[in-house]
Design a protein that fits this description.
TIM Barrel; PI-PLC X domain-containing At5g67130
């Protein structure tokens, strides 16, 4: 909590003085939100969620805080890269090179997630694996060791044609962990079909930070009509943790509106680096805004979207 700021706010210096109190947490979903299908709500996602702290080179940091802190702050989606560990039963989380950039143990991270789910019985968490391990047998063993397998929403409940189950239904089932993978593996903890059968994902890297452009990854170009989830990336290839204004609400809103025009639906997942760094409410306020769009309570007509666009353009000129 920042000095002089109320609970769930932090003191942030973004742009000119003076420093201001910014959102530092996302509030929990309301009872009304819990009645919505999984594919009709929005979640904050952290890119390379594990990449923080002394286990990683400072050049490889994508986040400032631990996975446990991220979850406590309202992050509900975790992007994790899987690599073969130091022995047959070990699975590491790292990016590119586990030696050059650093690494951490998947087991430790899964235990953090499981402990969060046990403490917070009305929360739903999503894991998006970039899988270079490609061995579900070993992965399932680590899940069992972390005692988290019981939370996984199996593919029987996935919404390929119809809506996904509501958050409330997932809570009642006790299945509050959704696990995606990018390589088409079909054994537990994965589903019988991979994430590209259910998700459109926008490109990452420098193109992702252009608020006026939204291009899908080549993997998600086929059968778009079957998919009912949209993941929008907002991070560059080389992370920049020094910028206090990294995730600006106005730029994010503009990006998501561009993606809405491209795909005809509002994003379910917004993936960012350094989720706590931002201005005008940052990524936190953006996800709140997204959920308003998904419920239809916010302005959504073409004219109003055009007026929002003009307002953003004026802010750009003034800055």
């Amino acid at each position: 909590m920042g000095i002089g700021c109320a609970r769930s706010l932090s003191c942030s210096l973004c742009g000119s003085l003076p420093a201001t109190c910014q959102m530092a947490q996302l509030p929990a979903f309301s009872k009304q939100d819990l009645q919505k299908p999984y594919n009709k709500v929005a979640f904050l996602v952290t890119h390379n969620s594990y990449s923080y702290g002394i286990d990683f080179g400072i050049w490889a940091h994508n986040q400032r805080f631990s996975v446990a802190r991220q979850l406590n702050d309202g992050v509900r989606g975790l992007m994790l890269d899987l690599y073969v560990g130091w022995n047959d039963a070990d699975v590491r989380l790292c990016h590119g090179s586990c030696i050059w950039s650093g690494s951490t143990d998947l087991l430790f991270t899964l235990i953090e997630i499981r402990e969060f789910l046990e403490r917070n019985t009305h929360e739903v968490v999503t894991i998006i694996f970039e899988d270079y391990l490609e061995n579900p047998r070993i992965l399932a063993k680590v899940f069992d060791e972390a005692d988290i397998s019981k939370f996984v929403l199996t593919s029987d409940y996935w919404g390929e044609v119809e809506d996904w189950p509501t958050l409330s239904e997932m809570i009642s089932l006790g299945r509050r962990l959704v696990v995606f993978n990018n390589v088409g593996l079909t054994e537990f903890p994965y589903s019988t079909r991979n994430m590209w059968n259910f998700m459109i994902e926008s490109r990452y890297g420098s193109v992702s930070k252009n608020p006026n452009e939204c291009k899908e990854r080549k993997e998600s170009k086929n059968h778009l009509g079957e998919r009912r989830l949209l993941l929008v990336n907002w991070f560059t290839t080389i992370p920049n943790g020094l910028s206090p204004c990294l995730n600006d609400f106005d730029h994010l809103k503009r990006k998501l509106t561009t993606c809405y025009r491209k795909f005809g639906k509002w994003a379910n997942f917004l993936a960012v680096d350094f989720y706590s760094k931002g201005s005008n409410g940052g990524a936190f306020k953006t996800v709140q805004w997204l959920n308003e769009k998904l419920t239809g309570s916010a302005k959504s007509s073409n004219l109003e979207m055009f007026l929002d666009f003009l307002e953003d353009e004026m802010r750009e000129i003034e800055s």
